[in-house]
Amino acid sequence: METSFEYGRVLLKLSGESLKGSSNDSPYCGDTIKLLVEELGALIDSGLELGIVVGGGNIWRGAKSSDRSLHRASADYMGMIATVMNSIYLRDAFNSCGFSAVVQSAIPMDSIVSPFNGPEASRALDEGKLVIFAGGTGHPYFTTDTCAALRAVEIGASALLKATKVDGVYSSDPHKNPSAKRFEKLSYDEALAGRYEVMDMTAFSICRDNKVPIVVFNFSKHGGMEKILSGDMSIGTLVS
Question: Of 153, 181, 194, 222, which sees the most CB atoms within 10 A?
């Protein structure tokens, strides 16, 4: 389906915390997820080909575990399993609203979800299905940012969209410095030289080397993603 979007096929990186809403007691907020499904579903109906990588921070943050008896690799695997749980929740939320969503996991869980397969994921996107990529890279010591960058390249995404709670990339933390400058556009080299921490360096290098634009944008604003897809960077920063 032809669209008026600047980017026709995208990989959206969501944090696990985005599924919580304002809830402090539960890893999921039904109302928040319903709004997410409605907003993204409308874009899919408009012809957007959408892949999603969701983090697991609403359940577990492996890299920040303070328990020294837990090996870092074990903590990371627990985080990857958390992303599978989140992906299953999202899949069912989309399917229950009439959209066709599938989950592919880098960690084999064949009785629960399909294994990751790049060509099959691309075919599913061609058919208008939402593809949710779970299980990170399948290996410890890598972030979900890196997973998102890899999947963006593997499905031939025209951009990687990183959903945040701020209007793009700033010269410093805008919550601490009211005078912080927001950038509408940055080159890969400018982002690297400025140490703006767009995403972890492995993920950033993958996008730079494969010329996948990165858009960091405020996903908490209703209609924000549609603006970004239409090329409006008033609530985001394009790194290309």
Answer: 153
**What confidence tier does 11 reach under pLDDT thresholds 50, 70, 90?**
very high
pLDDT number for residue 129:
98
Distance in angstroms (rounded) separating the CA atoms of residues 239 and 224: 17
Q: Phi/psi class of residue 169: alpha, beta or left (left: φ > 0; alpha: ψ in -120 to 50)?
A: beta
Task: Domains for the chain: give ranges and CATH numbers.
Answer: 9-239 (3.40.1160.10)
191, 171 Cβ separation under 8 angstroms: no
Report the predicted TM-score, pTM, of the whole model to 2 decimal places: 0.94
Cβ-based neighbour number of residue 24 at 10 Å: 6
Tokens of 53: 């990588």
Among 93, 112, 92, residue whose Cα is nearest residue 104: 112
Strands 185-186 and 236-239: parallel
Q: Is the pLDDT of residue 54 over 70?
A: yes
3-class DSSP state for residue 53? Answer: strand
User: What's the token pair of residue 21?
Assistant: 């809403």
Q: Amino acid letter at 229?
A: L
Of residues 188, 72, 195, 202, the one with CA closest to residue 146: 202
Q: What is the pLDDT of residue 62?
A: 60
Look at residue 130 and give its three-state secondary structure: strand
From the number of C-beta atoms within 10 Å of its C-beta (0-12, 13-18, 19+), residue 31 rates as exposed
